[in-house]
Amino acid sequence: MSGEHSNDNQWRKLASQVSSKINLAWWLDKLSTPLLIAALAGSCLILIARRELTDFSWFYPSIIGAIILLAIGLLSWWRARENFESPDHALVRMEASMKMCNKLSAAKQGLTPWPAIPKVLNDGTRWRWPRLLSPPLAALILVGASVLLPVSTRSNAGDLPMDEPQAWKDLEADIESLTQEETVEKDYLEELEERIEQLRGQNQEEWYSHSSIEATDALREMHQGELDKMERNLRRAEQALESLQENSGEMSDQARERILDAFSEALEQLEQGKMKPNSELLEKIKALDPENLAQLDPQQLEQLRKSMKQSAKNCAQCQGGASKGPSQDGGASQDWLDDLLNEGSDNGQPQEREGGKGGVNRGPGSAPGVLGQISPDVNSGDLEGLQSEDLSKSLPGDLLELRDSKHDVDKTKVGLRAGGNVDNESEGGSRVWKESLLPSEKRALKNFFK
Amino acid sequence: MEHASETEVTDAGKHVRSLSNALQQVLFGQEELIQLVLTGILARGHILLEGLPGLGKTELVKGLSRILQLQTRRIQFTPDLLPGDITGNPVLQEKEGKRQFVFQPGPLFTNIVLADEINRASPKTQSALLEAMQERRVTVLGESHQLPSPFFVLATQNPIELEGTYPLPEAQLDRFLFKLEITRNDVDTLERIVTDRDLGSEPDVNPIMEASTFIDVLALVRRIYLPDVVANYIARLVDATHPGQSESSGKIKFGASPRAALSLAAAAKARALMNERTHASFEDVKFIAPSVLRHRIILDYNARVEGLTSNEIISLLLEEIPFQAGKNPRTLQQSASS
Predict the structure, then answer these.
(1) Is B335 helix (H, G, I), strand (E, B) or coil?
(2) Same domain, B237 and B172
(3) Which of residues B223, B245, B278 is at a domain's end?
(4) Cβ of B329 and A26 within 8 Å?
């Protein structure tokens, strides 16, 4: 009797173990999907937090992660609860898998004694390891990757120094260049520097405002204009000196007079301009008497001309004159001289309008090549007849096709016919299987004969 | 009701085993068929035996009747057999100077009816058996007459493809507890038949069990314990035969009836007794399920065209429906049974 009681306890203990295993399996089954989703969302949040937060700490994320994990576990247990098995059910599972002919159920009912515990126990189930381990491993990999992946904190965009407008830099470069070469008087450069500082002194957010860009543009244009003007005057003066020096004996009095006037005019403009050459050079030019060049030392004159040419070149090399091509370097002055010598011989042809360059200071016309390379043969203004070949878009009444054909006339004789004839010649047996069977049966028969 | 005790079951089991041994002297090489016939009889069910002529169907039934010492009558079903020929007819007789109809009982009024080649009779005559098989009584001209107890119909039929046969209606098929298919004998069995039997002579069989003992055994079968889990398995199995209730039932047109569930339970109890157990088990249900269900499920046209049989569908059902209710979690898989 005690042995039977012992068997009873052992079987019930085994049943309890089996039911725990089944219930754990159900819980893990229900846990896998929420765990994966939470791991995916959590890893994304960790990556975002690591990127966005400069003072990221692991303390709070760890606490929140543990709470979420606990909540998922409880939720999964609640969902799995409806599938949980009792130890009695586990007994049935064991007797079924061990083919015990329901001896355990009968023993539980008290009809038969509890059977002895067999050496090999089998509850009919075993763990499906790939299915069991995949979700937690995947979750671990996701979270681990989000923790271990190197992510740099995104710096605040407002902390970065704002890049100042390029025009200011160009002007600064011009000032530096002109100061180094001592080409221009310092007063002008100081004034220019002061105006740039005024622009720079405004709020950074205002640097690229319309008014600021307009002011910068005006300053750049003014500087460019002054550079051009000084360069032109220096070149004119230098060219005049050269002509006087080399062609003094050959040129007519009228021509000589014109050149002398031009020199004087250039000198006057150099003196009156906002941008003046450095005082030493200006004094030398002023001290020069163009009418008595022959009395001067040729070497001194050559040196003076060289200084003037160098100053003009310095002006041309500044950013304000950067747009000038190499052909214009000297070419313009040569044109000026040619114009001077051939005054009144203008052929009167209108100048071609050049395209604009875009930007605030854009000129007349549109910027060239904005929409790509301009095709030379656009044939604008020509009229061409268009013919639609798409018949689907034809309108009612459109002529679609012309064909030579005869009318299709039904030539069947119309009149009395003899009755009683059988016209329909059916195929043998078709009526039977087509009309006697149910639709499902017809389908099955067709499938069979396929 | 008090459940059967182990002593009672052991005694009854010995009697049944002696019946089985005696029947094996009548029919050679058909041990499983004999077990199933005895199971059906112990479950108080009617049995339909199907097989080609000459396989020993009639011999088996005649041997059974002699062993059990029960009254037996044989009805040879023919196309011109009328219902009255089997149930009995009212005969006009003169009694005390008056003419009146007196019921003349037919061959149904016996313990074991051997309905030989039942599917050769017309459906009208086949239907005459319905009331007798289900309610164990016969009604003629408004008068009901009780049939003797126990009452069994052991019918034989030839496969329906043979000439001159009428298929049994579903309602009548459902009243048979088992439909057993008799297969041909192997060479050794044939050799034994040829050696031990002469053409035309019947085997010598001695009575094994008295009728009263047999009735006691029948009563004991009803006291066999049917565990709840087994009853649940029977219910799930029968439910799964209906279209849409399981994967295997896709080609079933009509599933088994509640009478099939009752039959499964009764037959499982009978088999438990034969195995000297006080309770039925899953294994009992699984063993007798094909015999109980094969004539109760109607396959659809697709299955018939594809050549599927009821036995194949039932095998699939038995594989699909687990013993214990509920499903396994996806983290566990079914392991091989020990």
Answers:
(1) coil
(2) no
(3) B223
(4) yes
Q: Is residue B89 part of a domain?
A: no
Q: Which of A109, A131, A447 is nearest residue B225 as measured by Cβ atoms? A: A109
Check whether residue B143 and residue B233 sit in a common domain. Answer: no
* CA-based nearest distance B140→chain A, Å: 39
Residue B2 clears pLDDT 50, i.e. is over it: yes
Number of CB pairs < 8 Å for A and B?
A: 111
pLDDT of residue A141: 94
The rounded Cα A317 to chain-centroid distance in angstroms is 37
Segments in chain B forming alpha helices (H): 6-26, 31-42, 57-68, 83-87, 123-127, 129-135, 170-175, 187-196, 211-222, 228-240, 258-274, 282-293, 301-306, 310-320
Q: Largest Cα–Cα distance of chain A, in whole Å?
A: 154
For the record, the structure tokens of A246 come out as 């080399």
Q: pLDDT-derived band of residue B277, with 50, 70 and 90 as boundaries?
A: very high
B252 and B310, same domain (yes or no):
yes
State how many domains chain B has: 2
Residue B218 and residue B240 in one domain: no
CB B111 within 8 A of CB B71: yes
Average pLDDT over residues A110-119: 87
> Which phi and psi (to 5°) does residue A276 adopt?
-115, 150
Interface test with A, best of B269, B286, B318, B332 (most A CBs within 10 A): B332
Element (H, E) at B254: strand B252-254
Distance from C-alpha of B28 to C-alpha of B184, rounded to nearest angstrom: 11
User: Bridge-partner residues for A116, per DSSP?
Assistant: none
Cβ atoms B111, B66 nearer than 8 A:
no
Distance in angstroms (rounded) separating the CA atoms of residues A330 and A334: 6
Nearest CA in chain B to A32: B331
Domain that holds residue B158: 1-80+109-223
What is the SS3 assignment for B153?
strand
B280 touches chain A (CB under 8 A): yes
CATH number of the CATH domain containing B245: 1.10.8.80
> SS3 for A288?
coil
Closest in A26, A85, A102 to B282, CB measured: A102
Question: For B88-131, what is each residue's pLDDT tens digit?
Answer: 988 888 878 888 888 899 999 999 999 988 888 888 888 888 88
What letter would DSSP give residue A205? G
- Encoded tokens for A139: 């979750």
The answer to whether the Cβ–Cβ distance between B330 and A128 falls below 8 Å is yes
Task: List chain B residues with CB under 8 Å of A447.
Answer: 302, 305
Q: How far is CA B229 from CA A52, A102, B238, in A?
A: 60, 9, 14
User: Does residue B199 share a domain with residue B284?
Assistant: no
Are both B244 and B307 inside the same structural domain?
Answer: yes
pLDDT at A320: 54
Does B300 map to a domain? yes
Cβ–Cβ < 8 Å for B269, B43: yes
For B102-109, the CB contacts below 8 A with 24+ separation are B103/B140, B103/B141, B103/B143, B103/B145, B105/B138, B105/B145, B106/B138, B107/B73, B107/B74, B107/B75, B108/B73, B108/B75, B108/B132, B108/B138, B108/B147, B109/B138, B109/B145, B109/B147, B109/B148
Q: Given B223, B238, B255, which residue is the final one in a domain?
A: B223
Residue B88 forms part of a structural domain: no
B191 and B267 in a single domain? The answer is no
Distance from CA of B232 to the nearest CA of A (A): 12
The predicted complex's ipTM stands at 0.80
Q: B150: cis peptide before it, omega within 30°?
A: yes
Distance from CA of A450 to the nearest CA of B (A): 12
Rounded to whole angstroms, how far apart are CA atoms A342 and A336?
10
Residues of B in contact with A15 (CB under 8 A): none
| Shared-domain flag, residues B31 and B55 | yes
Question: Do the beta carbons of residue B308 and residue B314 sit within 8 Å?
Answer: no
Tell me which chain A residue has its CA closest to the CA of residue B325. Answer: A89
